[in-house]
Please model this.
Amino acid sequence: MTTMLMALLKGKLIDAVGAKRLQGYICPACQQRVILHHGTRVQPYFAHCSKEVCTIIGEGETQQHLIGKRQLLIFFDAWGTVSLERILPDIQQRADCWVERDGKNPIAVEFQCSPIMTGQVLGRTRGYQKLGVYPFWILGERYSKQKLGWSLIERFATRLRGWGLCLLFWDIQRQRMRIDHHLYQDALGNYHGRTAWLLNIEELVAGNQLPLPKLVLDYPKWRSRLARDLQTKRPAVLAIQEVLYPTGHHVLDVPNFLMTTTVTLPVFGQGLLLWRALVMAQLFALPVLRITGATMNVLVVKSFKTVGGHQQAVWFSADEALLKARYRLLADLVALGYLRPIGENWQICRQPKWVGETK
Ligand SMILES: [Zn+2]
Model:
């Protein structure tokens, strides 16, 4: 059931706060009748009659959503002229908050409290972009409790100046914005980010200039987790071992020289290290001594799939990260004397040794 804070009465927009109990309130989106709900302990709001379907799909609004929208209206106030529940008939969407800025593109604020599928986020985001509107996805309580991982990143992570790849949350109790920023993955597949609490829009614009903390990779812990995953036959790890097996290698024997403190866009599934191991194992198992760029690309993409990599998120793709990873791996293998570049191709010079291999 779509609910709202603003309804039409005789052609004028009326805020539910301060609205009188009258007949004749109309939904600004579908022009059907709506009713004022006004209790002593809840935020007042308008709602459709239960059997009516609105043309705009809105959240079945919770108190959190209603309160949060009003707080966000204040938060974004310094940025321009803000209003609640802007209806965009062209794309059949309703922005929770709307910021008009002089000489700049408008901003839509989506305060997301209820569950939503990736396809819906994508559809709504593209809808706004089509109109030249920048949508801020700001997440409610249910999301703030979730562990940082692909599910959140795929739908909501966006790049903001001064914050890198980040996720935005709104806490209605603290009346503050939480930003999980500079999100990345280490080579062992762990997700990282830092959290800041923002009081106002100036702090959001300022960004965070603190240097990133030093990355510590717990290799032994990673290895024992991998061993346990193999024992319990975790499908994601078995898939990797299945590719390595015909090359004569074992996932627990990944050579130390493949280790890297490089961090990546968080698209690498089980991590950059296993991706590097997969590419290298298959590369040196090829029945040829000369490797072409095309062959290399096939291994890069194939291994990305095997390692559970993610090609596309709502706000970004993995293309650039994958290109960088390919470049670094090849540079390392050349530097270590396993490969030699010849024109556009690579010559295999010697076979790398994996841990525990004596021959
Ligand atoms: Zn409606």
About this structure: The chain has a mean pLDDT of 93.
